[in-house]
């Protein structure tokens, strides 16, 4: 069944909602300004970075030369391969411990930063801005800082991952808490539960699968990040990767890259299994 409008009704409907259909002048100007600013920034980047199609084509040719130098992957010796594998497990340990410690510390901070848990604006503001400050510094910078504080080695790498992820987890956890359904919380309150009961039985069961999924993803992501921070002396396989690149041992470089790819693939597979076990396949 179709609803037919007469010409007069159609004209009256358009006249009644003319502002919504046409849009305000302010909205149009803001759209023009934003689009113009983005286009200008794009053009500025092209000119400033000296972007050139011919450089890209020449770069692909050079890339082919490097790939040829990397084949076949070869650690050099069995003893060297054992050292690389140990360094890989050290990198995985840095990523795992750093991520878990960050999640543990960020869990209470997420509740402090959530508007539906803490109504005090001052506490909420301080928690949010503190996490923004920590998150605004890259993991590589934190690695340089912690290397100077505690010295070279994997402990500095673990602290760098933990510090970098602390702000990110706090933000993600607080957003998950704020988006949680209020009905379970209201149900706990209706039977006489206090604030802690509301959090324990109303909020945590809802947000825990989301938090666990985020932590599992960051463990995989931080395995790659731990490779980078190892270059500045924070332990792990990154130190050997930087060394082999500096000495032009390209076959060893490709062997290290394959180790990293294999580790990331395995962690991704395991985290997917754990994620499905926690949230269930029906949730996606």
Automatic annotation (TrEMBL):
Q: Which GO terms describe its molecular function?
A: ABC-type phosphonate transporter activity
How is this protein positioned relative to the membrane?
Multi-pass membrane protein
Q: Signal peptide span per the entry?
A: none
Q: Which domain of life is it from?
A: Bacteria
Family matches, as PROSITE patterns: ABC_TM1
**Which ranges carry the ABC transmembrane type-1 domain?**
88-271
Q: Does the keyword Repressor apply?
A: no
InterPro entries (UniProt xref)? MetI-like (IPR000515), MetI-like_sf (IPR035906), PhnE/PtxC (IPR005769)
- Predominantly, its location class is membrane
User: In the UniProt record, does the keyword Transmembrane helix occur?
Assistant: yes
Q: Where is the protein situated, by its record's location annotation?
A: Cell membrane
Q: Which Pfam families match?
A: BPD_transp_1
Indicate the transmembrane segments per the record. 29-46, 53-72, 92-118, 139-162, 199-219, 226-242, 254-272
Record keywords: Membrane, Transmembrane, Transmembrane helix, Transport
Which Gene Ontology terms of cellular component type are present?
plasma membrane
Which PANTHER family does the annotation name?
PHOSPHONATES TRANSPORT SYSTEM PERMEASE PROTEIN
The entry assigns this protein to a family as follows: Belongs to the binding-protein-dependent transport system permease family.
Supply the name of the protein.
Phosphonate transport system permease protein
**Protein's organism:** Bosea lupini
